[in-house]
Design brief:
The protein has ten helices and ten strands. Strands 1, 6, 7, 8, 9 and 10 form a six-stranded antiparallel β-sheet that branches. A four-stranded antiparallel β-sheet has the order 3-4-2-5. β8 and β9 form a beta hairpin.
Length: 413
């Protein structure tokens, strides 16, 4: 095992699932989870370009992969008249291109040269299918119940032009040019088969930017992603991935796969930044300086949800984000969060169009995302400072085997 591979595995702890802080299912989810071995040395900058992720495997890359510093999310609709035949050809092209790019090779004939001189930089391309894809390809009998539309939430102000889609691609890399190169290749490969529905760009902290691996901060300045379950935990696969063992029937093609909920969440930063520090901490339920619970300790200290102040009030308020989103308050509901922050410029009124491209993964969104978001929707103190502007739900099949393309078990079944 190389030093690079060891370093990447250490950083797996930075990938988070729903935990007590920053679960923000449509609120402020973590830009990275808590690092298990906080004393490990930071990723050396010289290793950033050479790190790579495998395209083939039980699961698609980009789910448990450590968060990359640059990301693009893009959704497509199949072109008018395109159906299953065209979808097969498209997924073949995309898979072949993804395998080459993730290995640090050119995209193929006509490569743009954008990423010349760079290594793979932990590039991942992850592919999913939206609910409408099954109508377009006449595969409705194989559409999982888990792809039923998400319920409406009171905080939703969704733009349908930036929501949903037949096909979805998540691109992540630790170099901006490598990430853009992959985005351009995916768009070119779509050809006449599919048209871009929407596209969003995001970022996270760069590897090696801090003295040691640490939980990231979101654009509100909060340490975000503490207490996140990790791939090493015994129940992680059960919560995040569709079981592979005994897979049969119309949904067997999802074995080893997961479901991605995607939300564009605008943070109303001008309003948030007007709050005094103490009030910000009351909204979240944690100290801003180090992410520790208001009940004391360090970032990893358990929340003491029953502790009261001398006047009898709860130290962590009843509507604090950390309390409402805590797994113990939600029957253990969990999801793997891999979001990106975004900033799309300054609006005409001078407010920043900035926030979170929230992406969470779970074996069943009706048991992961939905129940927790419903609870947040009913009384999260953070709600006045965020706006849900776009949404999507996608079935992401398991990773392709050697010689396979993504989605082959669905499209050729």
């Amino acid at each position: 095992m190389s030093d690079i591979e060891i370093s990447r595995r250490r950083l797996l702890g930075t990938v988070g699932a729903a935990g007590a802080t920053g679960i923000a299912l449509g609120a402020v989810s973590g830009a990275a989870g808590y690092v298990a071995a906080a004393g490990d040395p930071a990723t050396a900058l010289a290793t950033v370009g050479s790190a790579s992720e495998a395209f083939h495997g039980e699961h698609q890359a980009g789910i448990t992969t450590p968060l990359q510093s640059r990301g693009h999310l893009i959704a497509f609709d199949l072109a008018p008249g395109a159906g299953r035949k065209e979808a097969v050809a498209l997924m073949r092209r995309w898979s072949a291109t993804a395998a080459r790019l993730m290995a640090g090779e050119p995209a193929g004939d006509g490569d743009t040269g954008v990423a010349l001189d760079a290594g793979p930089s932990s590039l991942t391309l992850t592919f999913g299918f939206g609910r409408t894809f099954f109508d377009r390809t006449k595969l409705t009998a194989r559409r999982p119940v888990a792809l039923d539309p998400l319920p409406a939430f009171s905080s939703d102000q969704l733009d349908p032009r930036r929501s949903d889609g037949d096909l979805w691609v998540q691109i992540g890399a630790d170099d901006a040019l490598v990430a853009f190169h992959a985005l351009r290749a995916v768009q070119k490969d779509a050809g006449e088969a599919a048209r871009v529905r929407w596209q969003m760009n995001g970022f996270n902290r760069s590897p090696g930017a801090t003295a040691e691996p640490m939980t990231a901060r979101n654009l509100m300045g909060q340490v975000d992603g503490t207490r996140n379950p990790k791939p090493s935990e015994a129940d992680f696969d059960r919560r995040i991935f569709v079981p592979s063992a005994g897979a049969e029937g119309p949904y067997a093609w999802m074995a080893g796969g997961s479901y991605a909920v995607v939300r564009r969440i605008r943070m109303l930063l001008d309003d948030w930044e007007k709050l005094p520090l103490k009030e910000q901490e009351q909204v979240i339920g944690r100290r801003k300086s180090d992410g520790a619970p208001l009940t004391g300790g360090s970032e990893t200290t358990e929340l003491d949800l029953d502790r009261t102040s001398p006047d009898g009030t709860l130290v962590i308020p009843a509507n604090a984000h950390a309390r409402i989103s805590a797994p113990e308050q939600n029957a253990g509901a969990a999801m793997l969060r891999r979001p990106y922050s975004y900033h799309d410029g300054i609006a005409a009124d001078g407010t920043p169009d900035a926030g979170l491209l929230f992406v969470c993964w779970q074996a069943d969104p009706l048991r992961g995302f939905v129940p927790v978001q419903r609870k947040l929707d009913r009384g999260d103190a953070l709600s006045p400072f965020i706006r849900h502007e776009a949404s999507g739900l996608f079935a992401v099949p398991g990773g392709p085997g050697s010689g396979e393309y993504v989605g082959q078990r669905l499209l050729e079944s």
